[in-house]
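FYI - complex with aspartic acid, inputs then prediction.
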Amino acid sequence: MTDDKEARAGKAQSAPSASPADGAAVADEPKKPWFKRLSLTTWIFIALALGVAAGLALQGTPEIADTYIKPLGTIFLNLIKMIVVPLVLFSIIAGVVSLEDVKKVGAIGGKTIVFYLTTTAFAVTLGLIFANVMNVGAGYILPAEDLVYEAKEAPSFIDTIVNIFPSNFVQPMADATMLQVIVIALVFGFGIIAAGKKAAIVVEFTNAMSDVCIKVMHGIIMIAPFGVFGLITPVIANNGPEVLAPLLWLVVVAYVAMICQIALVYSGIVKLFARMSPLKFLKNQAPAMGFAFASASSVGVLPLNLECAKKMGASDEVASFVLPLGATINMDGTAIYQGVCAIFIAQVFGIDLTIGQQFTIVLTAVLASIGTAGVPGSGMIMLAMVLQSVGLPVEGVALVAGVDRILDMMRTVVNITGDAAVVQSVDAIQKRSYARKEQKLAA
Ligand code: ASP
């Protein structure tokens, strides 16, 4: 292990067990005032409840919520969007470089991508099955007023692939085109490995910047309770709880499918590949899941997810490469949501989808979830692309918008738990392969 890697691993071990994100109260510190003893996750839930209450109170005057409370949410979202690009860029370069060898990046990266794509395809299929079997659109009466939603043109499959490769170094960062940012990170990571000793200073800089970005993200998530309050209040003030009732079945179906993804797919892969008890996995993953539910941002949960993964024994090199990648491209909860919503919208508009069309939904939802940024609400924007791919009315997005936040919270839990399950699996496979190689060398 290099000095640098030792330092990183040491840092991981010495990381305080109570992160700002789980902020758990330390039992032997009775002098802390009560509000400091509550974890950040608890604070976010309190803010959520207060936001609903304030929204209900402001139903008659939603402009007050829009003018004075919404900006809190906008500032919070802006800060997360601001840090997403440098956080993903530097943590992926640092992750690639820590593997020290292009072949190793290929081996770990290859397995990771296979896991990510397969679990996402499973997820959307699960979403489609539950939506069909549970008749997700049943009983929903289409409101009479016109539904308007601006949709983006869906690019073709080939264009989607071509668009992953940037022709410019700065533009993808300015536009936060995350797949292009990942390609830049990988290419530069490989370049740094190839340059060897000459790039030592860049390695140090990237590692430091990755740590700085994680600290900045910690800082931003400390204000998450205000952000969540600012995001939920105007939604309730403008729509009222009546938006929820007709969409309750959609929420139930999506939640059931998402819980199944965790209980079957993730538990299955950690048992099979990481040879870990699913209960132990879920118990250790709980702080990150709680924070994901409250914050609805995969990228916001990244620092805490890294801590949970390492606590479960994942090596620094695998976790610091696989998790930032997953926080950007692996969105199984989002894929389930897109599958369920597509069927919901089809049923509500009385459109029968053929098996072929449902297969197209699987493909586009996998692509759309890869392109979804790990920030609140982005999955809904990508839903338009999925609808368009099978000719469903994109206005349908406006139908589900009222409950998006409730769905977003759970899909983010699934998104980050999927990443965590893959980290443990890839890490265990990798460790077994190292052990086999050592055995061979010894023989
Ligand atoms: N909020 C989700 C996440 O950060 C993305 C989405 O909107 O589906 O993981």
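The CA atoms of residues 177 and 371 lie 8 Å apart. The chain has one domain: 39-434.
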